[in-house]
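Appendix B: complex inputs.
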Amino acid sequence: MLTPIIDRLNQLLRRVPAWTLYIVFAIYVGWQFWLALNQSGRYLVEPINALEREYGETALKLIVAGLMITPLRRFTGVNLLKFRRAIGVAAFFMVLAHFLVFAVLDVQSISRVWTEVVKRPYVTVGAAGFLMMIPLAVTSNNLSLRKLGGATWRKLHKLAYPIAVLGSVHYLWLVKGFQIEPLIYLAVIFGLLALRVKFAARRVPA
Amino acid sequence: MAHRWKSDLTAANVTPQSMFLSRRQIMAGALGLGALGAVGAARAQDALQPNTWEEITSYNNYSEFGAGKDDPAKNAGALDLTDWVIEVDGLVDNPGTYTIADLTAGLTEEERIYRFRCVEAWAMVIPWNGFELADILNAVGVQAGATHVAFETAVQPDNMIGVRRGALDFPYREGLRLDEAMHPLTMMATGIYGEPMPKQNGAPIRLVVPWKYGFKSIKSIVRITLTDEQPYATWNAINAREYGFYSNVNPQVDHPRWSQGTERLIGGGLFASRQDTLMFNGYDEVAGLYEGMDLVANY
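Resulting structure:
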């Protein structure tokens, strides 16, 4: 009974080019930086950590959004597949922005960045996730897809799963005491990964 | 006895109210012009300037009112201050339930401009108003066997969103060794910038121990107990590896998850540089309290 609505939605989505996402997130990154520079709203008193946290959380949201596309299509028929690459690339640039705020504005020196990565497990975990995103970002173009071949490319891009886990563990680990938000991210990500395990298992005997 | 401690920060360091609102605008303007170097140099010189009222009252850790830095400013309005009393018990000559007026009757109120260092590696400079804790303890009469002082924060579940969420094991509790409590630097603050203590900063009365990480300076106190053992301390009980009982500011001993060697002084904007953290937060006069103690083991 919902099918006509979903068909209509899919038709509308087909008309929205995927590159609009790049514009939206580029504006978002610039806008948040501008707000932090002017210390307005949440950036009122201490803009550096606030901006670091804002970019980091948005990156995690984008990673979750990327993982939701397949289940969303499977369970509701809503097809956002053509946006997935842009979402992944935007997530990479968001993590890059998060890292740059950390390195340049927060710890403020390369030696301190290195010390943090080596000495603080939650930074190590975050850095590992970031490094794993680089090959995915680099191969997010049609040429790479052709060169690698579909099977290899898909296998490589399964790195998105451990990246998502590392991202949510990084968040959970850095907060002080018991906080609910990072636990929600972790639970949602594990839920989305569990769905894949379930369907992969079902596919094997068939 | 009041006036036992003299500050290297003087009244001249208290920015007049009219100025402290404009200081940030001036800095924002300077940043806009790209005068980054000049601003950095200016900050180094006036590094001991107190933070603005706005900064002090809108960037707080007060778990009873939420986990975000801006949550206490948003939610602490619900704190009910009516008929506030403090239970004083344990090894004291005059136990009982005191109003703040009773507890501080005849004592000298002072303004103290202290550096404030949070365990999260940010710092402020705050002009407190209040009383030496030693004066209050002497007034209630500390008995011979007492070795420690325990403090407790109010619990008002109806008014405290963090308590309803069960964020920590409330009531929030903290403690000091008796000699730390009696040190002239240790104060019970009832105000900031000459104004009554804002709720998000721990109204109506809070502890201030400037050489220890901020979480030791317990807010909105309803109970003071003199005891002969090391008291329960909330963060220490949650994670002893990360939050020691002493929690003296010490750049040599890192928090397991971040460095304590440097800190960010709040108020420098998006390009604020880090400054070195000082041993005992710069209050070397307390070093004698810890003579012969291994401060790496007793962090």
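Chain A has ten helices and no strands.
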